[in-house]
Inverse folding.
């Protein structure tokens, strides 16, 4: 038995290495997406310009303003008159205007002694970007409240992600989406290409059994995916400073499982399509929407209508993203997400079994 | 023993009967040609025999193995070269050959004596990507790859389609040499002129086999007298000749028309009748395989 398996892997790797453009896309797109979502498309509070309306600059007000000005996330542009507030917001000079009540000090003192009072601070925000405005309001409140009243009625504390950094939220999501799209696309196209160019005909009229063809194809793509995985994890850790407090080993192990799942999905797509275009359409277009919408990447699963919540259970990305979030941000060990692991494992087994059964050693 | 035995095999795609109750036998070491136009069912027959598709009915065996039950055994002992160029265009000539050798668990060295006469011609380009080869060179590489595991039976589906005349002749010379080494070859072609290079041929059309014989046997089966006619106005000549008495059939054939005569045909009367045509000329001609094919097709 000479090693026709190894030469198959070699041939598959040559295909990939020769196709420099595809390789570049596969390697670069994850990086670009990570940077894009990590920095550019963010809902986090950053460089929020703030102006303050304070008719009476009492000690309490000054203390609050100092607190604000010393915070890195806000840029204090100065005091303005109440009439100017509208114009400042309209022209975009500031995102938020904070109006202190004339009775600020007295009311704060009253609140401290437990007497209910009317609000003492008014926040006016430019809500044309709803996400930024929402986060800014929440963060401003937490900064101001600290000074306004230790005795406040409630206290909000943001655990795990106190600055509400959007990268924390997006990194697991992007990982979940990128791996499945890239892996599924690569494998499905590579198998279907053999059908389309007619080389499958020659491959089949040989002693090589189909499962060998399949695994030989998966190995080089798995290697590439691993490189992409390492790149993404490095970017997440060192560029976006995602904590990964749950242990890199666990994150890596779970991601490897997810890679195999994604490759199997690509395999499955290849068994139901006949042309490269169809394979691309299915693995990119058809799968993109559920992966973006129903995986928790963009919207929390709990906020979806019941029907879509049910549909989301068959989206592999949902379980992966859920588990990675817990491990990366909350710092849970892999044991804590055993349920997600088992679901992903079962999906992999199912997809592999179905594809192997469907992968015909005949032409039809 | 026959290398290939096909018994009443049929394969349909929907309503289209691509192969309709075809039977044929090919002896060991024979160069057998399937001759017929596009859509005659040649490719489907090849795919059936190469175990790529399963027959609807009928049976066939290759080197003693049944194409349905023992298809794994068949896949190791046939060489198959599809009609379309089916190698990897992004791999070099050498990489393609090595890959196909490994696919069949052999090394290039083991079979080098068999492929050498063909492969030597493309060896100077072994670093070149297969996709960048000319049509003739692609065919030589594909043939080398199909031969690398010393198959008992070689299937060549329209190997000379899209290849220039010189390369076509070379290709048939190569097949002749392979035949001498004892390899059974089943080759299909739409070119009637290539049929004479085969030991025996089967004329096929619309999924059926019209006749099987040696090329001379096929030609000898054409018993009617055959004439070639010419005139300045070829189209009008064709129209008139078809209406003439004693003419069984008349059809364009290269530069002239071929006229198939029946028992009522009288050459002198015919000459007299057609004298009015400018530049009229008639001569008896030897029938070719194509004439026989046309005759069989109309029956």
């Amino acid at each position: 038995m000479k090693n026709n398996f190894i030469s198959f892997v070699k041939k598959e790797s040559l295909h990939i290495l020769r196709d420099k453009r595809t390789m570049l896309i596969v390697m670069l797109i994850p990086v670009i997406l990570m940077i894009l979502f990590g920095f550019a498309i963010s809902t986090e509070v950053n460089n929020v310009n703030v102006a303050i309306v304070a008719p009476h600059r009492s000690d309490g007000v000054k203390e609050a303003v100092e607190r604000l000005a010393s915070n890195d996330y806000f840029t204090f542009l100065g005091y303005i008159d109440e009439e100017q507030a509208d114009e400042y917001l309209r022209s975009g000079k500031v995102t938020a205007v904070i109006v202190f009540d004339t009775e600020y000090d007295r009311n704060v003192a009253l609140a401290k002694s437990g007497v209910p009072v009317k609000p003492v601070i008014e926040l006016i925000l430019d809500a044309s970007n709803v996400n930024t405005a929402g986060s800014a309001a929440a963060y401003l409140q937490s900064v101001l409240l600290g000074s306004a009243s230790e005795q406040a009625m409630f206290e909000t504390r943001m655990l795990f992600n106190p600055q509400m950094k959007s990268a924390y939220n997006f990194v697991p999501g992007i990982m979940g989406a990128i791996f499945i799209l890239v892996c599924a696309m690569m494998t499905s196209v590579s198998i279907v290409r053999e059908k389309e160019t007619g080389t499958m005909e020659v491959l089949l009229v040989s002693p090589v059994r189909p499962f060998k063809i399949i695994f030989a194809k998966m190995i080089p793509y798995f290697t590439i995916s691993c490189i992409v995985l390492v790149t993404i994890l490095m970017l997440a850790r060192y560029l976006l400073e995602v904590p990964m407090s749950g242990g890199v080993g666990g994150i890596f192990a779970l991601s490897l499982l997810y890679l195999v799942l994604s490759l199997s999905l690509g395999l499955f797509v290849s068994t139901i399509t006949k042309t490269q275009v169809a394979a691309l359409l299915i693995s990119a277009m058809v799968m993109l929407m559920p992966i973006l919408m129903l995986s928790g990447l963009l919207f929390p699963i709990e906020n979806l209508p019941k029907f879509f919540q049910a549909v989301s259970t068959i989206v592999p990305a949902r379980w992966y993203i859920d588990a990675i979030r817990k491990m990366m941000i909350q710092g849970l060990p892999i044991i804590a997400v055993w349920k997600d692991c088992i679901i992903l494992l079962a999906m992999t087994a199912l997809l592999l079994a179905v594809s192997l059964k469907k992968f015909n050693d005949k032409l039809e | 023993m026959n290398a290939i035995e096909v018994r009443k095999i049929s394969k349909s795609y929907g309503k289209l009967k691509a192969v309709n109750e075809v039977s044929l036998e090919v002896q060991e070491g024979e160069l057998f040609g399937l001759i017929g136009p596009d859509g005659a069912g040649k490719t489907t027959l090849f795919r059936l025999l190469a175990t790529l598709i399963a027959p609807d009915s009928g049976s066939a065996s290759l080197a003693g193995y049944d194409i349905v039950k023992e298809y794994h055994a068949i896949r190791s002992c046939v060489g198959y070269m599809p009609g379309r160029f089916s190698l990897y265009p992004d791999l070099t000539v050498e990489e393609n050959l090595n890959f196909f050798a490994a696919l069949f668990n052999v090394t290039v060295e083991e079979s080098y004596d068999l492929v050498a006469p063909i492969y030597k011609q493309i060896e100077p380009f072994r670093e070149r990507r297969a996709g960048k080869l000319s049509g003739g060179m692609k065919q030589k590489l594909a043939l080398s790859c199909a031969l690398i595991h010393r198959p008992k039976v070689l299937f060549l589906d329209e190997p000379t389609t899209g290849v220039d005349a010189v390369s076509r002749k070379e290709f048939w010379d190569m097949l002749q040499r392979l035949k001498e080494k004892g390899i059974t070859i089943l080759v299909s072609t739409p070119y009637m002129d290539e049929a004479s290079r085969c030991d025996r041929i089967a004329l096929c059309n619309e999924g059926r086999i019209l006749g099987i014989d040696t090329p001379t046997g096929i030609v000898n089966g054409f018993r009617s007298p055959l004439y070639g006619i010419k005139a300045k106005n070829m189209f009008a000549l064709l129209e008139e000749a078809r209406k003439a008495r004693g003419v069984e059939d008349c059809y364009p054939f290269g530069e002239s028309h071929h006229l198939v005569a029946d028992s009522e045909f009288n050459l002198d009367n015919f000459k007299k009748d057609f004298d009015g045509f400018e530049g009229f000329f008639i001569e008896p001609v030897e029938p070719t395989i194509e004439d026989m094919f046309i005759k069989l097709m109309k029956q």
